[in-house]
Design goal:
The chain is of the alpha/beta class and about 220 residues long. It has six helices and twelve strands. It has a single domain, classed as Vaccinia Virus protein VP39 (Rossmann fold, 3-Layer(aba) Sandwich). The strands form two sheets. A seven-stranded mixed beta sheet has the order 8-7-6-9-10-12-11, sandwiched between helices. Bound molecules: S-adenosylmethionine.
Length: about 220
């Protein structure tokens, strides 16, 4: 087993993270005991960040003590792996679906460095209280105004890095994915430098993961 990025391990069969809450599974991942520690396999079909790593991501901004604001946390699949990767940090997990929030709360009960927040990513001023600046903004909300949402949250939370999962069909089902990705990237150009743009095929169709560094 090799540590490819801080807290991310490459196994023969894929990726894994060291379990922050030993014995606890979040989805159908496998738990593996290796040299006295427990690891959770990380499925690139269930997580765009894992898909990005499998597809050659080079710049990994997360550290053991990073503070992350995760927009679109859903039931906590990818946030739970970030909880493993940043055991001394905090993962603020924003989600606006009450249905998803129920599952997310259960994950946050076990993973104490995950903080659930019920709210709409379009209105950062409504959930900013108590969060403060963050190191990394991670966004996966599948909304037509994804770039605008990222920029609003960046103004509020001043991240040094951001990651944005873009689904071309959520933005425009008629334009080609390439054109949609180019237009979204242009909207972010004043605020962020694009470190990488990673196509998530074959794990996710018509998705890219933009890896961004703040210009401010
Ligand atoms: C594709 S899923 C995210 C999956 C998750 N990132 C993972 O990998 O585990 C998108 C989520 O974003 C949430 N969402 C969509 N628009 C939102 C908004 N404006 N504010 C907060 N959450 C939103 C949806 O309810 C959904 O749970």
């Amino acid at each position: 087993m090799k540590e490819t990025f801080p807290g991310v391990y490459r196994l023969k069969a894929g990726l894994a993270t060291e379990n922050y809450a030993p014995g606890y599974r979040v989805y159908d991942e496998k738990l593996l005991k290796i040299d006295g520690s427990e690891y959770r396999t990380w499925d690139p079909l269930r997580s765009k960040l894992a898909a990005g790593i499998m597809n050659g991501l080079r710049n990994f901004p997360f550290r053991r003590d990073s503070t992350v604001l995760y927009l679109g946390a859903s039931s906590g699949t990818t946030p739970s792996h970030l909880s493993d990767i940043c055991p001394k940090g905090t993962i603020y997990c924003l989600e606006y679906s009450k249905r998803m929030m129920r599952d997310l709360y259960m994950v946050c009960e076990k993973k104490k460095n995950m903080v659930p927040i019920l709210g709409d990513a379009n209105f950062p001023e409504r959930y900013a209280h108590g969060i403060g600046p963050v190191d990394i903004l991670y966004q996966d909300v599948a909304q037509p105004n994804q770039a605008e949402i990222l920029l609003k949250n960046a103004s509020m939370f001043s991240p040094r890095y951001a990651m944005l999962a873009i689904k071309s069909r959520s933005i425009n089902a008629v334009k080609s994915p390439k054109q949609v990705f180019r237009e979204e990237t242009e909207k972010l150009a004043g605020r962020f430098e694009v470190l990488e743009s990673i196509d998530l095929m074959p794990y996710d169709k018509d998705h890219v993961l933009l890896n961004l560094k703040s210009k401010k």
